Amino acid sequence: MNSELQLSDLAQTDLSELDVVERYAHFAPVYDQSVHDWGYQSHRVAAEALHRYVAIHQPVLDAGCGTGLVGAALADLGYKDVTGMDVSPDMLRRAEEGGRYRKLLSWDMTRTPYPVADDAFAAATCIGVLSLIADPTPVLREFRHLIQPGGYLVFTQQEILYEQYGYGNILRGFEQRNELRREFISQPVVYLPNREGYTDRTLIYCIYQVI
After folding, report:
1. Measured between alpha carbons, how far is residue 208 from residues 140, 181, 192 in Å?
2. pLDDT for 159-168, tens place per residue?
3. 124 within a domain of the structure (yes/no)
4. pLDDT in tens, 194-209
5. CATH number at residue 126
6. Helix crossing, 20-27 with 89-98: angle to 10°?
7. What's the rounded Cα separation, in Å, for the pair 211 and 192?
8. Name one GO molecular function term (predicted).
């Protein structure tokens, strides 16, 4: 498959059959244009949500940063101390070209602990990433260590996977252990309104405070 995949080809290609790094090696060259054409806005929604809770001078981790859409949205709001982390070298190169991150880390989010200090960030975003991780518990536990007490985590999950992976029970466990406090869980919203076959696929926005 040609790495310079065209959008028309992408729509007919089952990238889900590839591993994550290979999938995004193919997707990286057309990712930003693709999601723009599909009407994707989750990066902006998430950045604006974070902005309601976290001052712009605070350090933020963008976990699963991809090409840097969330980082760009945060930069547009005035955030300057944003660290991006992603498993895909090709996506990270695109993020670096955008110049919106203070630092970029190449890391697989399923590998814990992450290569950053505890309490290093006032907040973290994880947008459009957790659908690739069947067991979110270690990832959420790691976020709790990386985010300062009183800080915030903003993440999304596809509605169908939120149920399938047991997010309700998992998040209640964190709440009952006084590790996280729920601030907001959205109603399901369509996230790719212009992509054929996706108009009935929805995701959920979640905001939790670290205790």
Report:
1. 10, 5, 24
2. 999 999 999 9
3. yes
4. 999 999 999 999 999 9
5. 3.40.50.150
6. 40
7. 33
8. S-adenosylmethionine-dependent methyltransferase activity
